[in-house]
């Protein structure tokens, strides 16, 4: 029996703890991918998403850097990983391309959260990835009135 096709897509959102910039995130991921067999980067987490099919239907992980959503990476698959303690964990395998997004303020949270497609910030057009972000005060004011 063939399963019902998935028509909905959902994203993940995660804090990039200790990261100062998108370039810092990319550098850290390149370094980590060299330590993994196959060179593929993955983010390891304790919990498995319950909405795996929706994430794999075109979803991405959106990275929060210094209090703002700043970039995303497409989720390729989920691999089972085991820590040194023998506990099963989830390896979120990511596309190596890090795509800058329009910044959006986000309060701190633990773990990861789901992010609806309609709530996700837009990708920055090619060539605009090096633009200076909006001043924090302006960005916060626009977010408060619902503009971004």
Task: Describe this protein with a few key phrases.
3 helices; 148 residues; 7 strands
Q: What can you tell me about this protein's structure?
A:
The chain is an alpha+beta fold and 148 residues long. 17% of the residues lie in helices and 34% in strands. The chain contains 3 helices and 7 strands, in the order βαβαβββββα. The protein has helices at 22-33, 52-55, 136-144, and strands spanning 10-15, 42-45, 60-65, 68-82, 88-94, 99-105, 112-116. Strands 1, 2, 3, 4, 5, 6 and 7 form a 7-stranded mixed sheet that branches. A hairpin with a 2-residue loop joins strand 3 and strand 4 (68-82). The longest helix is centred in the N-terminal third of the chain and has 12 residues, at 22-33. The model has no long low-confidence stretch (mean pLDDT 85).
Which helices and strands occur, and which strands form pairs?
Elements: E1 10-15, H1 22-33, E2 42-45, H2 52-55, E3 60-65, E4 68-82, E5 88-94, E6 99-105, E7 112-116, H3 136-144
Parallel strand pairs: 1-3
Antiparallel strand pairs: 1-7, 2-5, 3-4, 4-5, 4-6
């Amino acid at each position: 029996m063939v399963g019902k096709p998935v028509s909905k897509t959902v994203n993940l959102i995660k804090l990039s703890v200790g990261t100062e910039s998108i370039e810092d995130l990319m550098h850290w991921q390149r370094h980590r991918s060299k330590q993994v067999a196959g060179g593929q980067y993955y983010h390891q987490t304790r919990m498995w998403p319950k909405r795996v099919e929706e994430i794999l239907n075109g979803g991405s992980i959106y990275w929060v850097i210094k209090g703002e959503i700043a970039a995303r990476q497409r989720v390729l698959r989920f691999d089972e990983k085991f820590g040194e303690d023998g506990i099963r964990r989830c390896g979120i395998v990511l596309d190596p391309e890090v795509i800058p997004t329009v910044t959006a303020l986000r309060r701190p949270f633990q773990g990861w959260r789901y992010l609806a497609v309609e709530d996700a910030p837009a990708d920055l057009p090619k060539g605009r990835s090096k633009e200076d972000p909006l001043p924090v005060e302006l960005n916060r004011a626009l977010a408060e009135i619902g503009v971004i």
